[in-house]
Automatic annotation (TrEMBL):
UniProt-recorded Gene Ontology molecular function terms: oxidoreductase activity
Family label: Belongs to the shaker potassium channel beta subunit family.
Keywords: NADP, Oxidoreductase
GO biological process, one term: methylglyoxal catabolic process
Gene3D superfamilies linked: NADP-dependent oxidoreductase domain
Domain NADP-dependent oxidoreductase: 16-315
GO cellular component, one term: cytosol
Classification lineage: Bacteria, Bacillati, Actinomycetota, Actinomycetes, Actinomycetales
Official protein name in the record: Aldo/keto reductase
Length: 336
């Protein structure tokens, strides 16, 4: 069964393997299969579910809401996000203005068929809205009982510090950040994680398998397998491209003996690796079929010895991205 961790400096516990439905629900996976996969996650001890209004332009939230119908609400932790353009994509259907946040929460509550969201996350930083406006809107939702905690996604260390200070003034808790993090993408380690540790903010990390590259299925010098993410323009092929160079794929193949010595599959080792970081509260995983999750959850509670962690670092030296400046390029400078 999946272990639990506290989320930030709060009393909220979440499953350290958290189910995320980006890409899959409402688009890539047929709804009945998606619902069966959510039920499989519940059977395996996953109680935390992460989605966003922008996923499949709101359809992913609706699928997750149907999948969780009938499950006692107190047994679930439901997370969603607001920022990216949704709906008719009008001038106010994007960003972190008070209007878009208020419209966004009501739409998400309706689609998820719930009275409240456990964690409501700013999906990016909005350079076009005063941060005071954004945080005050979030605080109002907390006081209304529609949201329990506030989180963000892909904020820089400085943005986290400013947001946490405003949250404190407003007597609410900013407890999480949701960045990309994996053996191959470590840009948060130098600035974001130390700042988060100081502020009592946890990381809920997405793409712990580097878009599937850390599964080892992509071989250097060979075409990507048909049906894989790297061949699907609608399923993140552009995002995986940065990991598809010869040097990276070769280094990933050299991880296989390390995983074998640990008695882990490559996906298990990739997920266990991010969970070794004490500032990481959860690794987000997705699945297109129920049976995929049974292997994934075995990464929970795995402790990778220091010698193996050092060997992983050595194997990926020169191909892992550790540049902290990358965190400053993720949020658009103008609204999309």
């Amino acid at each position: 069964m999946v272990a639990y961790r506290y989320l930030g400096n709060s009393g909220l516990k979440i499953s350290e393997i958290t189910y995320g439905n980006w890409i899959t629900h409402g688009s890539q996976v047929e709804d009945r299969t998606a619902i069966r996969t959510v039920h499989a996650a519940l059977d395996l001890g996953i109680t935390t579910f992460d989605t966003a209004d922008v996923y499949a332009n709101t359809a992913a939230e609706s699928v997750l809401g149907r999948a969780l119908r009938g499950i006692p609400r107190e047994n679930l932790e439901i997370f969603t996000k607001v920022y990216w353009p949704i709906g008719q994509k009008g001038p106010n259907d994007v960003g972190l203005s008070r209007k878009h946040i208020m419209d966004g929460i009501h739409g998400s509550l309706r689609r998820l068929d719930t009275d409240y969201i456990d964690l409501y996350q700013a999906h990016r930083f909005d350079y076009e809205t005063p941060l005071e406006e954004t945080m005050t809107a979030f605080a109002d939702l907390v006081r209304q009982g529609k949201v329990l905690y506030i989180g963000v996604s892909e904020w820089t260390a400085e943005q986290l510090r400013e947001g946490a200070a405003l949250a404190k003034e407003l007597n609410i808790q900013l407890i999480s950040n949701q960045p990309q993090y994996s053996m191959l993408h470590r840009v948060i380690e130098e600035k974001v994680i130390p700042t988060s540790e100081e502020l009592g903010i946890s990381q809920i990390v997405w793409s712990p398998m580097a878009q599937g590259v850390l599964s080892g299925k992509y071989l250097p010098g060979q075409p990507a397998p048909q049906g894989s993410r790297a061949t699907d323009e609608k399923s993140g092929a552009a995002m995986i491209a940065k990991f598809m160079d010869e040097a990276t794929l070769t280094a990933v193949q050299n991880l296989k003996p390390i995983a074998a010595d640990l008695g882990l599959s490559m996906p298990q080792m990739a997920i266990a690796w991010v969970l070794q970081n004490p500032n990481v509260a959860a690794a987000l995983v997705g699945a297109s079929r129920p049976e995929q999750l049974a292997d994934t959850v075995k990464a929970s509670s795995v402790e990778i010895p220091k010698e193996a962690m050092d060997l992983i670092d050595q194997t990926l030296a020169g191909v892992a991205n550790k540049d902290p400046e990358h965190t400053y390029t993720v949020s658009p400078k103008t609204r999309p």
